[in-house]
Each structure stands twice: as C-alpha cells, then as structure tokens.
Design brief:
561 residues; alpha+beta; Immunoglobulin-like; Endonuclease, Chain A; 3 domains; 7-stranded mixed beta sheet; 15 helices; 26% strand; globular; PLD-like_dom; phospholipase D; RNA endonuclease activity producing 5'-phosphomonoesters, hydrolytic mechanism; PLD_domain; lipid metabolism
Length: 561
C-alpha cells in the first residue's frame, strides 16, 4: 500500500505492509532552516486512540534524569530524520498520521502546521499472499524492557509470563502456522508437508489432532539425515502415528539435507494453498531467529508443490530428483521471468539460477535488499560489493571468513547480526535467540537472521521478491531438498516484505553502529542525544551524493495511488 499527501509545504509518502508503516518526509531546503525535527501524532480510527509516537532519542536539555530504555514523546523530542517507521500497527485498522515540523529551541519548541496522511492497513487474511514475520529481534531492548530477558521455559517462569513472551516474539507467526493446519477442518481436506527440523510440539500436536480428531488425511516427510535424532525424539513425545510419517533418508552424501519447510492444503484431493518460507519447526525458528512464513492461495502454485511432494515421498537419490524438479519448473533466465509466481525446487542439475539472481541484482534501478543466514553465491557477492551510485542494504547473520564482504561504496550498507551484551549508552543489556530458546549450545546455527530473502527494486513498479527455504549457495541449489518462490510485479507484496526488511535492518544497523562507536565518543556525544543545530542532522538529506538523500529520493520518486 503506497500513499502520498502534500500539505503546508510538507510532502509525506507512506508505504504500508500488514504490520508496519514507513513514513518519508520531504520539504524545500529553505524550509529546513532551524528545523529541529518532526513530531508524529497517530490516530487509530478503529480503536479511537490518538497520541504522539515515542522514540529513543532526546534533547539532553529537557529530558531530565533519563533512565535506561526510556522512551520519549516525539512532541517534545522530535524525530531528526526524514524517515520514520511505525511497527505497532494492526492489520485491517485505519490510521491518520499527522507529521508536524518543529522549530525553535529544545526549551521553546515551535510546532507548525503539519501534513496529515490517512492509511488503511491491508487485511492479511483477504490477500492472495499472507506473510508473517516473527519479531526476529529476540536480542532487543524491547524484550529486555518488557520481559527482563527471561528464558520462556526457565525454572520459575510462570505459564502466563512464558506465553506473553512467546506472543511478543512470535508476532503472529506461530498463530498463523497453527491456523493454517486447522484449516483442514474435516475428512474432505488433506495435508502434505515436508520439514527439516520438526521439533516444536504444538505444531506436531496440531498435525496429530487433524489426523486423529478431524479425520484429515495427513502425510509428513521429515529429515532423517542430519536431524534424525532430534526429530524422532519430538515425534515420539508428541505421539504422532508413524504411519503418517515418511523419513527422508536416501542420500548421495551425508552433507545433503531435506531442508524444506512447507505444507500443502488440499480440498477434495485438489491442492489449493501452500505454507512456505524459512521457518523451521523449532522454538528457535518460530520465536527466535528472524524468519518468515508465507501463505500462497493459488491453485497452480499449490499443484506444483504437490507434484514436488509426490516426488519426495519416494525418497529418491539426488541424481533422480534433480531431473524431476526441472520437470516441474525449468530454470529461469534474466529475460524470461514472467509477472506473477515462479516456483523453483532443489536439488537441480546446475546452479545457473544463482547467476540469474546475480543478474537481477546487477540490473536494478534504485534499491536491492538482501537477508542471508550463511555464506552465499560468489556471483551475488561480486554484485553486492560492486561500486554503483544506487543503494544496496544487506543483512548477514554473522561475520566470519566466508561472509565478510568488503566494499568501498558508501551507498552499500552491509551489516551483521549482533546484540548489546553489556548494554551501551542508555540501552539495557540484551540477549539473543540462542541463549533464550535453544536446547543446543547457543553458538550453534544462526542466532539472528535465518531469512533467505532478496528484494529487487521493492519500491519500483515491477518489484521482484525472492524468498523460501533455499539459501543462496551451490550446496542449497545442487544438493539439498529446497523450495524458492519468486514473485514479480506484485507491489503490495513487495511493500509488505520491504517494511519488514526495514524493521529488521534498522534494528541491527543501530546496534552495529553503536558498537562501532563504543569507546570512541565521550558522554557528550551520546548518539541518543538530539542535535540542537539543524545543519548537524539536515544537511546530508539534501546532499545529492549522500546515502540519506538517495534514500529520501526513492520515496519522492515513488508512484503512489
């Protein structure tokens, strides 16, 4: 959803997903003289609430004795940026944002007449695509403030405390997954699933209930290679009948894994919907590391997944399956990707699709966004680090010898997952998903980013969203069981992915910069302090070579309804 309003010399552009809103502001440069920032008032029409949004930054002169993790009203401590994000909206609700320019001095603020923009958040349940990102920031100031960094199943944590923490961490992903299974209401439905890690008991029990209580025809393929022990332990604990389970165990190499995470819903034996994405069926996958669940209500797509599932149930070796997957969907090229949904399954006979992804990234118009849990294709790395005058925002789970990317391009922002272990400035101490939710050692696997997402020109007229279970690596394409969906030309879907990407990117970017600055600035240079000189924060938004200017211009150039 994209909208724009122009009023009182101020232009506000809004991009909304189903749980996040981005506001971008623009005004003539001469009107910025003396500008201290923007106060942002939000009215929720559905719930009849109106108040000024809050932020972390504040004027030292008027904050009083600020305490750690305190939030400050933007009425008194305005936003010193031309972009603001609201990640507290609700699907289906209607909001009015009043963006108010603030001038004067911290102790004598002048609020001028602003610009109002009205937006209705899309209802995720009425769309062809429904997308659910979990909070993805288990290591966060908000979690520390709300829940004191509790481990949800630790001794002494009450069931109510645990559920509140899980509800916050899951952000609806867990509920959507369980509801998808519950759609299979009676014997006229069937469920076909394929999973890598299959351990989170409420999901296992949901499948069991569908089979035993509602007479649903259920069949589940699960990894019986690398995750055999953990999966079987959970299966036994849940008491799922073995006759509805199919272990995926044929292998050409012990390193090959059955890495899918999808469910197909069939009605009267006809595939109608698919749940897919990056989310493993574990507590850490659902509530901890950043993940996405993506529902596709499209019979053609569901049919392709079902055909793939039918191949998988035979437990084929790779040199059979890699030919079958290409019977479902041949490789795309840079020139033949059609608008709509394209589905690719692995293993494949060649890794040429990775070069195609790199070509799309090399030919973008204004913006590329990427989320990578592990090391990825050298072709994509070359494009990411290439010097251009356009924007590339990249998030990688951890920095190591295989993921460290070096670029001299100041338009190219590459960040890595991190957390404030000891707190910093006015932030509290944080934790991460490995410490909160993992039964394995906390250093095993990914603790921050597990999404496999690339967005090509998400704010353009023909955006491309690439998402699924497959990491962007040779092994993932050539050897593992995987699925990837590519959606071209769907602006509403791109907006949804983009707003969530911005949420996650900003979270880790702030921490990366804070840690980078740690020990290099004195107390008077606290990055949470607002500036009293307008040039100290405004100037870069009007420098045509600056990243902030280019980011603002993307929204100015956006074609809105």
């Amino acid at each position: 959803m994209r909208k724009r309003a122009v009023e009182n010399g101020l232009e506000v552009t809004c991009v909304a997903g189903t749980s996040a809103v981005i506001l971008s502001m623009d005004m003539s440069e001469e009107d910025t003289v003396g500008l201290l920032g923007f106060s942002i008032e939000r009215e929720d029409i559905n719930e009849r609430e109106k108040y000024f949004l809050k932020g972390f930054k504040y004027f030292e002169e008027t904050a009083g004795n600020a305490v750690k993790s305190q939030l400050f009203s933007t009425y008194e401590h305005p936003v010193q940026s031309f972009m603001w994000e609201d990640f507290t909206v609700k699907a289906g609700n209607e909001y009015i944002y009043n963006v108010i320019p603030v001038y004067g001095k911290p102790k004598f603020l002048e609020h001028r007449t602003g610009c109002k923009i009205k937006i209705k958040i899309p209802d995720e349940n009425t769309l062809k695509h429904s997308v659910y990102f979990n909070r993805g920031v288990a290591g966060s100031l908000a979690y520390a403030r709300k829940f004191g960094n509790i481990r949800p199943w630790a001794d002494g944590v009450t069931e109510e405390e645990s559920q509140k923490a899980l509800d916050w961490l899951g952000k609806g992903l867990d509920t959507a997954l369980l509801k998808f299974i519950e759609k299979a209401a009676d014997a006229s439905y069937s469920l076909r699933a394929a999973f890598y890690e299959f351990e989170y008991l409420p999901v296992l029990e949901a499948f069991k209930n569908a089979y035993e209580d509602r007479n649903v025809d259920v069949k589940i393929i699960y990894d019986s290679r690398g995750e055999e022990k953990a999966n079987n332990q959970a299966i036994n604990e849940a008491g799922i009948p073995r006759k509805i389970l199919i272990p995926r165990q044929a292998e050409s190499n012990k390193g090959f894994i059955a890495h899918n995470k999808f469910i197909i819903l069939l009605k009267d034996e006809k595939p109608v919907e698919v749940w897919t994405g990056s989310t493993n069926i574990t507590a850490k996958g659902i509530f901890g590391q950043c993940n996405v669940g993506h529902i596709i209500r499209d019979e053609d797509t569901a049919e392709k997944y079902f055909q793939y599932w039918e191949y998988l149930k035979q437990d084929p070796i790779n040199n059979i399956l890699d030919k079958q997957t290409q019977l479902i969907q041949n490789d795309i090229t840079f020139n033949n990707l059609q608008n709509g949904i394209t589905v690719l399954f692995s293993p494949r006979e060649t890794n040429t699709i990775l070069k195609t992804y790199a070509e799309y990234m090399d030919n973008f118009e204004s913006l590329v966004c990427g989320m990578f849990p592990f090391s990825f294709s050298k072709h994509m790395k070359e494009i990411i680090t290439k010097d251009t005058d356009k924007l590339k925002y990249i998030i990688i789970d951890k920095k190591d010898k295989n993921t460290t990317l070096v670029s001299n391009d100041h338009d190219n922002i590459i960040i890595y997952g991190t957390y404030l272990k000891d707190g910093l400035y006015d932030w509290l101490e944080e934790t991460h998903s490995g410490l909160l939710l993992n039964s394995k050692p906390s250093h095993v696997g990914t603790n921050f980013i597990h999404n496999k997402v690339v967005l090509i020109d998400p704010l353009g007229e023909v955006p491309i969203v690439i998402t699924g279970s497959a990491n962007f690596s040779d092994n993932s394409i050539l050897n593992n069981d995987e699925n990837t969906i590519i959606i071209k030309g769907n602006k509403d879907l791109a907006d949804l992915y983009f707003t969530e990407f911005v949420r996650i990117f900003n979270h880790y970017y702030a921490r990366s910069k804070a840690l980078e600055m740690s020990g290099k600035v004195s107390g008077k240079d606290n990055p949470l302090h607002l500036k009293t000189d307008y040039l100290a924060w405004v100037k870069s938004f009007y420098n045509k070579n600056a990243l902030k200017y280019k980011r603002k211009k993307m929204f100015v150039d956006l074609i809105c309804s």
